[in-house]
Amino acid sequence: MQWLALLLLLALPAQAEEVVLGLSQDSVSISTNFDGSEILIFGAVKRQEPIPADTPLQVILTVAGPDQPLTVRRKARRFGIWINTDAVEVDAAPSFYAIATSAPWAEALSDTEDLRHRISIPRAIRSVGAPMEVTDAQNFTDAVIRIRQRNGLYQLHEGAVRLREQTLFDTRIAMPANLTEGAYATRIFLTRGGQVVSEFETVIDVRKVGLERWLYTLSRERPLVYGMMSLAIAIAAGWGASAAFRVLRSG
User: Which of 14, 88, 154, 184 has its CA 20 to 30 Å from the CA of residue 132?
Assistant: First the structure.
């Protein structure tokens, strides 16, 4: 059976167009003075046949941080104060998500292909579980997208991929300072007429280093020690500020 499967695989026609990818760096180190990073992503299209002349090639590139579950709450004013009223559970939302395209979104990808590959920002957020009394669950998803776009965590850059001679492409993705540690899946899609003709995936590794790494590990492995140390630092900072204020007043 294994030999039969191998023969069937070899008998399949090679993809007419495939991605050959490069990264300016395949890892990002988060240190105490980390204020963001910019990743240059570049590549070429390898072909088995001449460039088709009927429909232009387009490139879509995505970088997605680790998925996280979250609870989205809605506040309402009751009796003069703001309180939580409704809550919706989101099974998985990427902590960071950036999209860059070589053309306007509607030209680069059809809605059917977006549904199949889950490329757009709303479709990257999976399984929104809303209680029966919540009839507008989409508004909660929209709120997550709006807040994370404001913080630079969700990005859509139409026309940001430079595509030369339908063969060479490159773009830059700005990664903000407030990144979550983990593997960032990077996907490249080649499309023609809104249809995906080739897909390539790699990973950018984002890790804390130095003091950030030590504090992160301490908080996970020895939470009691981490809590006591944080309390001691807070007390010392408060005492130092008080002492400085007394000196300034007496002077």
Answer: 154
